[in-house]
Amino acid sequence: MRFPFFRPAPAVAPPTAADGEVLLETAGLTKSYAGADGELPVLSGIDLTVRAGEIVALLGRSGSGKSTLLRCLAGLLPPSSGTVRYRGTPLTGANPGSALVFQTFALLPWLTVRQNVELGLEARGVPPRERARSADQAIDLIGLAGFENAYPKELSGGMRQRVGFARALVVEPDVLMMDEPFSALDVLTAENLRGELMELWDSGQFPTRAVVLVTHNIEEAVLMADRVVVLGSRPYGTIRETVDVTLERPRDRDCAEFDELVDRVYRIMTGRPKDTRAAVRPDADRTDPDHADPDHADPDRADPDRAERRTLANTPLPTTSVDGLSGLAEMIAHRDGRCDLADLADQLGLDIDDLLPQVDALDLLGFAEIHGDDLLLTEDGTAFARADVQDSRALFAGAALDAPLVRLIVNSLGGEAGATVRAGFLRDLLAHHYTSEQVDRQLETATDWGRYAGLFGYDAARQEYRADEA
Hints:
The protein is of the alpha/beta class. The protein is 38% helix and 19% strand. The chain folds into 2 domains: 22-97 and 173-270, Rossmann fold, CATH 3.40.50.300; 299-466, no CATH class.
């Protein structure tokens, strides 16, 4: 049941029929940023086409370059090499046929709803009376009639995001670009707004011919998109695979076909082939050739270059707390050391991608492995899940040193009691590879992990790490 915001109305002329015309395309798109150590690549070799009548989802984890790619498509960032074309013409500035909806609303608080919606029209030189009329039509279409003269502070988060949609749609762009537009909303509000937008798209009243959606939510991508473009992030953003979604709308999340697509996209995102070698089961006979894995206790022994390849640049810490990854390990242990991730997410009332940070953390620490659709605890992972508090800390301490950032902090302290390292030093190093927001998340996670493991302490007032005398 929808909340009573959405009121279909023929206020804005329907878009041109979906004829498959190529609206946007990239060829060999590469984007790099200048860093202290030279060029930092973000995207490489991106070939993408967006046609009229389709919704394309750019899906990937943090650091995969999906938001950077969206900004290149919008003409807000120039490519380092390759081309971006709008209707066959290379972009040399802002894309005249696109409009953006941001994650954080980006409204001007001193302007009313109508004035915020008019901004794009004002920038295009539309006369005041005409832009007020068009703004009111867009406001009514998006379900905010009656709030034209309200200020952003008077609106809920969902209503503020509706203003963002109206502001983008009022200019009737060929391509609407959305950068995780629902991630700042609570679950119910996001679900409602997402459903209303899809109803509007299906009704033929959506004043745009194509949509490009950036998301990290697998289920959202399968629910909304006609094509899901999965981006990989190591060592830089590339298109890992494109998945066509041919399910009829409105889509049923409970049908087997929907679940199969979600599982398929999940496997692509994790980069795990279905024939990945099984992890050691906690109850397995170690001499059984079907379970034996002599190199598993030390994966770096099986692959001597593995530890060397783990660097700050290509091994970011999954942003999860020790409590979160411990909780997942315990749940798997209670299920005999093996579980289907999709089934577990359903039981917990979560989207499967909500578990990805914990899954990545267990994998990085050597506590679990992915085998097909299942997550299996390793022998070390089983011991960690079943250990008491002190033993689990000791097990975690040894495993956490496989994480490059944790290892860097420990090595920088040199093992000398009383030694300190300023957080600013680490920020400078991380800034070569991550955005400032990502740097904050990486350090927060490393601090949480290292403190729990007893590898180092942290003085928040001084913003410095210290070697614990104990």
